[in-house]
Design brief:
Blueprint: H1 3-20, H2 23-37, H3 43-51, H4 57-66, H5 70-82, H6 95-108, H7 113-133, H8 137-159, H9 168-172
């Protein structure tokens, strides 16, 4: 099967399942999926550089869980308003930085299915980036294929109202070396 078609179908499946979840379930999933992004190189430094806020992974997780998101939303909006891609001093973020920034934006946005789907597809896109630019494309391709099934397993768990650990992604990718490429 063509990988583009497979991922398109997977994204549609994610959207369908996420649309059936409650707002509370969607909110509960965000910190779990963010566990993946926390493992990317320089997560906190990227946020500080581009959004101009100092955060820790633990504080961000707690704020997502407790719904304390306004300060993040304000900081992101301010950064977006001040960004001038045509300025002489504009610095294009690296791909990993973009994945982190998009994940933060989706994690702190109002809880809805589209933001959660974007978090999940961002994981796939990040693994695809590593596959395309690392010296071990087969390794990253295998992780990406496993990730598709893992995401559906997570959503199935949520649909059946079983508890899900917020550290599920941190545990899953704990031994993966996400070095800067």
């Amino acid at each position: 099967m063509d990988i583009v078609k497979q991922i398109k179908q997977h994204t549609e499946n994610l959207q369908t399942v996420c649309d059936r979840l409650t707002a509370a379930q969607l909110k509960d999933l965000k910190p779990a999926v963010m566990g993946f992004y926390y493992q990317l190189p320089g997560f906190e430094a990227v946020i500080k550089k581009y959004i101009k806020i100092s955060i820790t992974k633990d504080q961000l997780t707690a704020d997502i869980v407790n719904g304390n998101l306004e300060s993040y939303q304000t900081a992101i909006a301010k950064t977006n308003a001040e960004m001038d891609e045509y300025a002489d001093d504009y610095e294009e973020p690296e791909a990993l930085d973009i994945f982190i920034l998009e994940a933060l934006d989706n994690a702190v946005a109002d809880t809805d299915a589209a933001n959660l789907v974007s978090l999940f597809t961002g994981v796939i896109n990040t693994l695809d980036y590593y596959e395309n630019f690392s010296d071990e494309p087969g390794y990253w391709n295998n992780l990406q294929e496993q990730e598709l099934a893992f995401q559906l397993e997570i959503l199935s768990t949520m649909e059946s109202n079983k508890p899900l650990s917020t550290s599920v992604y941190q545990e899953r990718y704990n031994n993966v070396d996400f070095t800067a490429l």
